[in-house]
Amino acid sequence: MSPVEPDRTDPEGAIAAAAKRCSNWGRWGEDDVLGTLNFLDDAKRREGAALVRRGAAFSLAQRFDAEGPQKGWRRRTNPVHTMLSSGLDAEFGPPEFPHGLGGADDVIHMPLQASTQWDGLGHIFDHGIAYNGRRASTVVTSEGDRLTGIETVAGRIAGRGVLLDVGRAVGQDGELPDGFAITVDHIQATISAQGESSRAGRGDLLLVRTGQLTRARRDVAEGRGWGDYAGGPAPGLSFTTADWLHDTEIAGIATDTWGFEVRPNEFDVAFQPLHQVCIPHIGLFLGEMWDLDALADDCASDGVYEFFLAAAPLPVTGAVGAPVNPIAVK
């Protein structure tokens, strides 16, 4: 499986060629709305569940709060959490309920991709075309994604998870520098370093740790803030991994970065070209801003890089992406 090296001066041509090679259009019928999650069947869920040995559980979500990394790009802001009623009302306000019963309620306002999340199949288009060859305007309207909304997969994303800690395997002090493009060679080197439990295949949920989130949180702790974590330079998957991502038949892939693929992108002028192949053509579910550090520490400690992973998105009807609190259990 040799990666196809693109001409960095011709993103249009490279994207079109990769899209043709990697297309899953029609693979599961013209009405399909699941994409690569078709690979994640009941047998894969049983396989994933059988990996639980110790019962150790790890949340892979960043916090959802006003101190997050968002800076307003495409009107993405950090979550705003507000109390509708509080203990102050219960203690000092007029009685709301009889016999002294009090309570607290709250509300949150946030873009659905403000923190740890899945990209749905209606999130990215290629020249106005959505997954499975549908016209974008017939899929996502002002009412939301009417065909491939994230709610269609709310009960499906659970199975065998695999961690590739590329930051530890090929990086410096567990981290890859911004702009580092993870190639198939780096993936294979990581598998070799970690062992057979880190080999991903059909129906698996692959997690890739770069170490960028580790570095960003260190900056926050030392008073430098989030910097350009949200949208700026980052390590990530190389465009040349498109064929590997297609051919391995994984169900989904998530990283600890804002944008999954390497930034700046590998063409002279381009924006997220791997997204443009993965989502509308492969039908691959992409997770971003996952917190993989505690899980990675545990995997490095016991040498086991496979686990049961439950990562159901919040089933917001018609959403093109949604928050998730993924749980890995070993």
From TrEMBL:
<dbReference type="Pfam" id="PF04199">
    <property type="entry name" value="Cyclase"/>
</dbReference>
<dbReference type="GO" id="GO:0019441">
    <property type="term" value="P:L-tryptophan catabolic process to kynurenine"/>
</dbReference>
<dbReference type="InterPro" id="IPR037175">
    <property type="entry name" value="KFase_sf"/>
</dbReference>
<dbReference type="InterPro" id="IPR007325">
    <property type="entry name" value="KFase/CYL"/>
</dbReference>
<dbReference type="GO" id="GO:0004061">
    <property type="term" value="F:arylformamidase activity"/>
</dbReference>
<protein>
    <submittedName>
        <fullName>Cyclase</fullName>
    </submittedName>
</protein>
